[in-house]
Write a structure and sequence with these properties.
The protein is α/β, with parallel strands linked by helices. The protein has one domain (38-262): Alpha-Beta Barrel (TIM Barrel), CATH 3.20.20.70. Helix content is 43%, strand content 16%. The strands form two sheets. Strands 1-4-5-6-7-8-9-10 form an eight-stranded parallel barrel, surrounded by six helices. Helix 8 (201-214) links the parallel strand 8 and strand 9. Helix 1 crosses helix 5 and helix 3 (72-81) packs across helix 4. It starts with 5 loop residues before the first helix and ends with a helix.
Length: 266
């Protein structure tokens, strides 16, 4: 694990403690056949317009409460009608007020790809993701061993989104490829996990290098700090293929209007 901020370390430590609740949740949910839906990679590849993944995020350590008493089903309908290509749903309970039930409701409310956004540190989280119909799962490289969790995701038929936030982490993706895996989806977080500062320049520094080394068939998602269409234009110049947007959408009084603005539709 690389050097991380105290906040991130606290989230990881807290998540380890709450894993016992995840096991109870897994044992309580009804197991059933999962419906086949497109993954984020499949949806992004065929989309000819701006690919936005909108995030359902009730709270964050940096902003506090963002949206309380959410009607997840209504929010999903607004996001889908705005032309997003996928959803990201926070399931981390302690710092983001996320839940598996929010994700489950979102999945039941749409046929879009759904990313489970959490601090993945235990296989039980992957088992839950599979059972409730998740297509994609976030793997934060700086807190786990990719060589362990990447194959586990494949075992449960989950498409991983590998998140990195600095250039040195490219080595970990290189190693994953060297041992026989072919990651299709990589996220570049514009938030520095050491000090929590956001700089869109991070995508400009990292994405072209990922493309040059691993090929232009890799799908690269820019994450964090995306507030305007101008931001997306800048990130497109950095060769980002898609954009994960959470706080600026969730803070908006009109979700549909905000997403359309991000897509350059006024």
């Amino acid at each position: 694990m690389t050097s991380l901020s105290n906040t991130i370390m606290n989230i990881v430590d807290s998540r380890k403690i709450s894993i016992s609740k995840d096991l109870k949740y897994y044992n309580s949910i009804k197991k059933g056949p999962s419906s086949k839906r497109e993954t984020l990679t499949e949806r992004i590849r065929k989309n000819e317009n701006i690919s936005i993944i909108s995030e359902i995020k009730p709270k964050s350590p940096t902003l506090g409460n963002i949206r309380q008493n959410m009607d997840v089903k209504a929010i999903v309908r607004q996001m889908e009608s705005s032309g997003v290509i996928g959803l990201s749903v926070l399931t981390e309970p302690n710092f983001f007020n996320g839940s598996y039930e929010n994700l489950r409701t979102a999945i039941k409310s749409t046929n879009l790809p759904c990313l489970m956004k959490d601090f993945i540190i235990d296989e039980i989280q992957l088992k839950i993701a599979k059972e409730i119909g998740t297509t994609n799962i976030l793997l934060i490289n700086s807190i786990i061993d990719l060589s362990v969790f990447y194959p586990l995701c494949l075992k449960y038929n989950l498409e991983p989104l590998i998140e990195i936030h600095e250039l040195s982490e490219i080595e970990d993706i290189r190693y994953l490829i060297d041992i026989g895996f072919n990651p299709k989806l990589i996220g570049v977080n514009n938030r520095n996990l050491k000090n929590l500062e956001i700089r869109l320049q991070n995508s400009l520094n990292i994405i072209p290098k990922l493309k040059q080394e691993f090929g232009y068939d890799k799908i690269i998602i820019s994450e964090s700090g995306i507030n305007t269409y101008k931001d997306i234009e800048f990130l497109k110049s950095a060769e980002a293929d898609a954009f994960l947007v959470g706080s600026s959408i969730m803070k908006s009084k009109n979700i549909r209007k905000k997403i359309r603005q991000l897509r350059g539709i006024y």
